[in-house]
Design brief:
Radius of gyration: 29 Å
Order of helices and strands: EEHEEHH
Oligomer: single chain
Strand content: 5-15%
Number of helices: 3
Distance between the termini: 86 Å
Mean pLDDT: 86
Largest sheet: 2 strands, antiparallel
Length: 136
């Protein structure tokens, strides 16, 4: 048994003899060693895939820089494209500013519907009172 045996090592992808061995990441699914060029290509490929993500609403794949993070009030995990973000923002502002039942503009005082009413948005005083009488 030799301690410092130097058998020739070949790249797993291009089969070129290499002097310096690069270990591939476990995520790549490659066994063996890589040459510098193949290792660099695989790193670029891996990080380019990581830098793209799809929109939560429309599933369009874009770079992460072109996607928007949803507001915390929306209770969403992930990113949205600009168009979907604008639609969601408009819908959120409408729910916040107008009554969900009758559509009147809400003033300073707003009423939150009870959970069992299954109403999304805010209510005016008259709609809240009428739902309170119906549902309890």
């Amino acid at each position: 048994m030799r301690l410092l045996s130097r058998k020739p090592v070949f790249c797993t992808i291009c089969s070129k003899q290499i002097s310096h061995k690069h270990k591939p990441k476990k995520d790549w699914g490659i066994k063996g060693f890589l040459c510098g060029d193949c290792h660099l290509d695989k790193i670029k490929e891996f990080y380019e895939k990581k830098m793209k993500q799809s929109c939560l609403s429309c599933d369009v794949t874009k770079k992460i820089n072109d996607l928007w993070e949803p507001r915390w009030q929306w209770d969403m995990e992930g990113l949205l494209c600009k168009e979907c973000f604008d639609k969601k923002e408009e819908d959120f502002n409408k729910k916040k500013s107008f009554c969900s039942i009758c559509g009147t503009k809400l003033g300073f005082i707003r009423y939150h519907p009870k959970g069992k009413w299954k109403i999304d948005g805010q209510l005016c005083k008259s709609c809240w009172d009428s739902n309170k009488l119906k549902s309890g």
